Amino acid sequence: MHPPKPASRPEKTSLWRYVKLFRDDILSAQPAKLYRAKMAEFKTPFFRSYLVNQPDLIDLVLKERPMDFPKSNRISEGLRPLLGNSVFLTNGETWQRQRRIIDPAFEGGRLRDTFPAMVAAGQAAATRLADGVQEIEAQTSHAAADVIFRTLFSIPIEHEIAAQVFSEFRDYQRTQPILNIAAFVPLPKWMPRFHKKQTRVAARSIRALITQLTEQRMEQIRAGTAPDDLATKIMTTKDPQTGETFTTQEMVDQVAIFFLAGHETSASALAWALYLLATHPEAQARCAEEAADFGTDPQFADMSKLRFTRDVFREALRLYPPVPMMVREATQPEHFRNRDVPKGSQIVLSPWHVHRHELLWDNPDGFDPDRYATPEGKECLRHAFIPFSAGSRVCTGAGFAMVEGPLLLATVLQKWRFDPVADKVPDPVAHLTVRARDGIWLQAIARE
Predict the structure, then answer these.
(1) What is the DSSP string of 281-326?
(2) How far, in Å, are 212, 237, 323 from residue 247 at the CA level?
(3) Is 132 left (phi over 0), alpha (psi -120 to 50) or beta?
(4) How far is the C-alpha of 119 from the C-alpha of 138, rounded, in Å?
(5) 3-state secondary structure of 154
(6) What digits encode the pLDDT tens for the residues 15-36?
């Protein structure tokens, strides 16, 4: 039986009905034909959008000419209260400058340095679990947030400010749809953005707490007492072109996106991976075997022992990509698949549809971690697998996530087995990330 997949909407629907569906869940707002289409055009009274599933066109947008297709401001409208002017939302020279400062912190050698903190967070997560039925997204959210705080600020999730940020972020995630009205209707800059009051309050509170942590770290850096973690590395890195470092305000913007990208997305992928393992006991047994070999005091080099576990995590990212859609804007007229694409058009790249595309993948809706060992699977991995985007705008933390995911799965599976709960099949929906509408409920059973 295939893992759960949202139902598609009817082929024809009104714009306002579509907007309502989109705000509730962008996945079930789409027609079924998108799982077969190489490209699809959508017209609204205000703009045109083109969903592109063809790998060579995706490469054109993301890899060959990324500066001609900047991120669309329509999507950023809904995220600005929390993310400000972070690297996730910026374009052009501002974005290039931010990446020049941020990227060195996530280079290969730094991953090795952060590994012990990741292991500690994984072991803490395994210790927190208890026998019985539980909502697993809450557990993976807790674990992913712990990883972020330990690697970024050298503090565990139990730290008072870290715990407050985690709590506030849950409130923010519940109140913030991925799009607000400005995504559909072009609004002048002076016009209010209609963000919900709870969204604005939660965003202000999170940013105030992050400002506290950032200012404390600035003081430690000046005093020469700062730990050698990701925050210190980013805050002390000078732009090689200007010699400038981030101001406190700029750093708050970046920490907000690290928390969103590194916590929300990892939590989503981990929860779905555990659900997939619970419903595929043979795969879970193989992962548990690797986890036992991984040991309780693993070193970075031991990650090579988690080959199948890594492919399970990849398969979770394929079936349930945490960021289901990315939107770019055409800065000049284009010609895609014998069709004119006007300047200003929205170019939608959908990991959700590319990863389940019937013309690209064998058994696209099925769970098959072994597919990545086949020639077809390896080809798809290169050209039809974009959970972290691709090209110059690939997620800075992609390498970080591909260590964190298999590592946390292994440390949890060393102590626990997971079974599905018969009457609780999760229903995937997309808010900030792909989550389950009523959570993912699993039975945890302690291993002997």
Answers:
(1) HHHHHHHHHHHHHH-SS--GGGGGG-HHHHHHHHHHHHHS-SS--E
(2) 14, 11, 29
(3) left
(4) 19
(5) coil
(6) 556 666 666 677 877 888 999 9
C-alpha 321/C-alpha 266 separation (Å) is: 10
Q: Which stretch of DSSP H or E encloses residue 347?
A: strand 346-349
Please identify which residue in the block is written with the tokens 């400062």. Answer: 101
Q: Which of 171, 119, 168, 109 is nearest to 146 (CA)?
A: 119
Residue predicted with more confidence, 188 or 28 = 28
Q: Cβ–Cβ contacts within 10 Å for residue 406, how many?
A: 26
- Whole-angstrom Cα distance, residue 403 to residue 193? 38
Element (H, E) at 381: helix 375-383
Asked if 403 contacts 292 with a C-beta cutoff of 8 angstroms, the reply is no
Across the range 189-217, mean pLDDT stands at: 75
Token couple for 146: 């712990």
The Cα 276–Cα 420 span in angstroms is 9
Listed in sequence order, the DSSP H helices in 35-107 are 55-59, 73-76, 80-83, 92-102
Q: Please state the length of the chain.
A: 448
Q: Convert the pLDDT of each residue in 98-123 to its tens digit.
A: 999 999 988 877 888 999 999 999 99
CA-based R_g, the chain, Å: 21
Residue 178 pLDDT > 50: no
Quick one: pLDDT band at residue 83, thresholds 50, 70, 90? confident
Answer yes or no: are the C-beta atoms of 433 and 25 closer than 8 Å: no
CB atoms within 10 A of CB 444: 20
Beta-ladder partners of 435? 429
User: Using an 8 Å Cβ cutoff, are 412 and 124 in contact?
Assistant: no
Q: Smallest Cα–Cα separation from 87: which of 358, 320, 394?
A: 394
Question: 């400000």: which residue's tokens?
Answer: 84
Structure tokens at 71: 């991120």
